[in-house]
Amino acid sequence: MIKPELRAALDLFYSYAHTDEVLRNELGKHLSLLKRQGLIRDWHDRKISAGQDLDCEIDSHIENADIILMLISSDFLASDYCYAKEMTRALERHKAGLARVIPVILRPVDWHPSPFGKLLGVPTDGKAVTSWLNRDEAFVDVARGIRRAVEELIEQRDQEVKRLEQTVANPKYGNDMRALDGKYDLTAIANRETVAIVTGNTVVAELLDRPAAERLRDEIDKRGKPDPYRRAIVITFETWQRDNYVHSIPVISIGGPPANDLTKEMNVPSASYVVAPGVYGSYRKQNEILQVALWGDNATQTRASVENYINRKEGLESFLASCWQRPAR
């Protein structure tokens, strides 16, 4: 478990109609303990100062929010800005696994047929805050639901950190890093049966995608036994770009286009496919060399793309069959 004092607070964004500002303020008071505990940082448009660009500030905070509270009322649904702009982007980020959207039902309204109607809202059973006899009890119920979501997201973040720690502690990581440092010769294994797994351009991207790359490498190594050349090596895009001899072997690029230039090069409509919302892949032949890219909108979804590729017959098994000139099972 990560020490509380070392955790970064989750960013919480309020999407609401200004008619409901008084209710938003009351909710903020009930979430004050989460703020005092350093678990959340909240933001709403009233925090924009004079001279700042309204749209840019709102867009920036939506894009960086971990939790987006949609404060639902008839005025929210009637607002073009709330409904068409903020809600649309919030749900896109929710579906991609980049944020958690929580509908908070402030006033009675027919919200279930809406695009967010299948999300579990608060208070319990979707009973609007203003319908409770004691409004404080309603907000306590809302705050408890939000706290549970915060704790789940913090646990997920802790697990991401643990994966990174395990990655760096893995002896295979050290072996690959020695390879990247030139302490042993990659040409000894660089032939058409060895697969190069290419991670991102930066240290952060390389570390975030390293667990997925290791999972894929271990699977390839297992399927290639006992042949010593039927295996995989993990290298960064920088190494792949610099060392031309690895261009002669099959390659699988791990990580999204913003952090991996090889994936960016392969992310073209004619070669790309969608596994699920936020989970993607791409396949091509370059000079008769097989090249695959696997990525997602975040590190978790990149791992989902890798797992999908490992488990489906037309994925990794077919790729290795082509590399190793054997029929797929």
Mean pLDDT: 83
Task: Quickly give the structural class.
Answer: alpha/beta
The run of helices and strands is EHHEHEHHEHHEHEHEHEEEHH
Q: Ends: how far apart? A: 42 Å
Per CATH, which architecture of the largest domain? 3-Layer(aba) Sandwich
Largest sheet: 6 strands, mixed
Number of strands: 10
**CATH class identity of the largest domain:** Alpha Beta
Helical content band: 40-55%
Major beta sheet, strand line-up: 6-5-7-10-9-8
From the structure provided, what is the oligomeric state, counting identical versus distinct chains? single chain
Q: Would you identify the CATH H-level superfamily of the largest domain?
A: Toll/interleukin-1 receptor homology (TIR) domain
Account of the 3D structure:
The chain has 329 residues and is α/β, with parallel strands linked by helices. It is 46% helix and 17% strand. It contains twelve helices and ten strands. The model is unreliable at 1-6 and 180-185 (pLDDT under 50). The chain folds into two domains: 4-164, Rossmann fold (3-Layer(aba) Sandwich); 170-324, Chitobiase/beta-hexosaminidase domain 2-like (Chitobiase, domain 2, 2-Layer Sandwich), CATH 3.30.379.10. It has helices spanning 21-30, 32-36, 54-64, 74-78, 80-95, 135-169, 171-180, 203-224, 237-242, 261-266, 299-311, 313-324, and strands at residues 10-15, 40-43, 67-72, 100-105, 195-199, 232-236, 251-254, 272-276, 279-286, 289-296. It has a six-stranded mixed β-sheet with strand order 6-5-7-10-9-8. The chain has a four-stranded parallel β-sheet with strand order 2-1-3-4, with helices on both faces.
